[in-house]
């Protein structure tokens, strides 16, 4: 056992796994990892109590968490998470894309769920510590990366429901991953969910709160039943205004050539403020492409697709990067976006974003942070 200090100011105690994978075992696991199935040798944990604040930061062997059956998070779902990636750059170094934005969103989620905030240096320090020991797990193949999953949950023991927990566990695990959707950059078919609602005004939609995802599975299962890949969430009040997808934000492309214009649903408090979404709004305006945040209803979506005014639609997020939407189904029937193939602006923005993330284009935004 030894100790190492990171920029977080809190010393991470390092307990290396006696069962680290051999280079051969790791190479076999990295060959075709899929998404979120394979995990590295270690994880980071940090504890919080009201009296001590954040303490007991550890890098430890990846393994089961032992929890009392009355642990608060298991009963009342006080749990938040983040998702970001570590990318292998051409010079062999490892970088994250805007991890400070994930740290900030984690704290916004924490505030909404009456949980303690985690200092940004500790969030980043946890990533650096894990990468320092598990950096070999960052894949080198194209379109692959190490998906990082920081999360925090309530650890008080007891069934009282009057107050938020007074103790929490922060955990960081990492999963070498290929593309989120199998089959390369293939347009997805989406289902407009009118039966279920993801988030309502005053609710938890803009927090990366675990319960939002639990509440989405039934609608996602319905989407799959209807032959779709993903569900599109509509507003809770009128079931007309497009919000986002299960784990992605949406962009609509109108027109083409010099007249091309982008629209993404505005942040009303019920959808997740995606970091990819924000990056694409900034990138497109730099590329001279008009981009606005606004409203689009399902009727407008259908009419614009049918008139040809709407030329492309894509989804974006950390896991999904940029994924074209080719076909839309709902209770009122179905329609395609153009000829259903990936559009030119979708592919151009994807290339711009991926080049920044993988370090093949200079970072003029200060978005790329070396972590190993
Ligand atoms: N919307 C939801 C519901 C998500 O879970 C995600 C993924 O994190 C996104 C949008 C996209 O956010 P980001 O671009 O920060 O990954
Ligand atoms: C992400 O893009 O990081 C997500 O969290 C989406 C999904 C895997 C929940």
Can you characterise this structure?
It is built from nine helices and 19 strands. The chain folds into two domains: 2-177, Aminotransferase class 4, branched-chain amino acid transferase, N-terminal domain (D-amino Acid Aminotransferase, Chain A, domain 1, 2-Layer Sandwich); 188-357, D-amino Acid Aminotransferase, Chain A, domain 2 (Alpha-Beta Barrel), CATH 3.20.10. It is an alpha+beta fold and 372 residues long. The protein is globular. The model has no long low-confidence stretch (mean pLDDT 95). The strands form two sheets. Strands 1, 2, 3, 4, 5, 6, 7, 8, 9 and 19 form a ten-stranded mixed sheet that branches. The longest helix has 15 residues, at 120-134. 2-OXO-4-methylpentanoic acid (COI) is lined by residues 83, 247, 317-319. The site of 2-OXO-4-methylpentanoic acid has 5 residues, from loops.
Rg of Cα set: 21 Å
Count of alpha and pi helical runs: 9
Task: Note the overall shape.
Answer: globular
Mean pLDDT: 95
Q: Could you state the order of secondary-structure elements as H and E?
A: EEHEEHEEEHHEEEHHEEEEHEHEEEHE
Helix-strand makeup class? alpha+beta
CATH class of the largest domain: Alpha Beta
What ligands does this structure carry?
A: pyridoxal-5'-phosphate, 2-OXO-4-methylpentanoic acid
First and last CA, distance: 22 Å
| Poorly predicted regions | none
Largest sheet: 10 strands, mixed
Helix content: 25-40%
Total number of distinct structural domains: 2
At the fourth level of CATH, the homologous superfamily of the largest domain is Aminotransferase class 4, branched-chain amino acid transferase, N-terminal domain
From the coordinates shown, what is the CATH architecture of the largest domain? 2-Layer Sandwich
| CATH topology category name of the largest domain | D-amino Acid Aminotransferase, Chain A, domain 1
């Amino acid at each position: 056992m030894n100790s190492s200090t990171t920029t977080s100011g809190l010393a991470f105690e390092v307990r290396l796994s006696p069962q680290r994978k051999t280079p051969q075992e790791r190479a076999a696991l990295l060959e075709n990892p899929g998404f979120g199935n394979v995990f590295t040798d270690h994880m980071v944990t940090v504890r919080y109590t009201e009296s001590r604040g954040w303490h007991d930061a550890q890098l430890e062997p990846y393994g089961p968490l032992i929890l009392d059956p009355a642990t608060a998070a298991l009963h009342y779902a006080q749990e938040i998470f983040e998702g970001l990636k570590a990318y292998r750059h051409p010079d062999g170094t490892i970088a994250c894309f805007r991890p400070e934005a994930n740290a900030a969103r984690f704290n916004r989620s924490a505030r909404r769920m009456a949980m303690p905030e985690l200092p940004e240096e500790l969030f980043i320090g946890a990533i650096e510590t894990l990468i320092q020991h598990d950096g070999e797990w960052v894949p080198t193949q194209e379109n692959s990366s190490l998906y990082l999953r920081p999360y925090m949950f309530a650890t008080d023991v007891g069934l009282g429901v009057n107050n938020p927990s007074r103790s929490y566990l922060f955990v960081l695990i990492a999963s070498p991953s290929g593309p989120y959707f199998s089959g390369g950059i293939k347009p997805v078919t989406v289902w407009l969910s009118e039966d279920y609602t993801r988030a309502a005004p005053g609710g938890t939609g803009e927090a990366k709160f675990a319960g939002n995802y639990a509440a989405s599975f039934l609608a996602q299962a319905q989407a799959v039943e209807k032959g779709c890949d993903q569900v599109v969430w509509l507003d809770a009040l009128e079931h007309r205004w497009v919000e986002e997808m299960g784990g992605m934000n949406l962009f609509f492309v109108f027109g083409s050539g010099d007249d091309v214009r982008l629209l993404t649903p505005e942040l009303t408090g019920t959808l997740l403020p995606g970091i990819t979404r924000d990056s694409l709004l900034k990138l497109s305006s730099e590329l001279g492409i008009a981009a606005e945040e606004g409203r689009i209803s399902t009727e407008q979506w259908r009419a614009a697709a049918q008139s040809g005014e709407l030329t492309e639609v894509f989804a974006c997020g950390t896991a999904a990067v940029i994924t074209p939407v080719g076909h839309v189904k709902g209770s009122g029937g179905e329609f395609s976006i153009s000829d259903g193939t990936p559009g030119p602006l979708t592919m151009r923005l994807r290339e711009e974003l991926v080049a920044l993330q993988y370090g093949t284009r200079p970072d003029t935004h200060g978005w790329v942070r070396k972590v190993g």
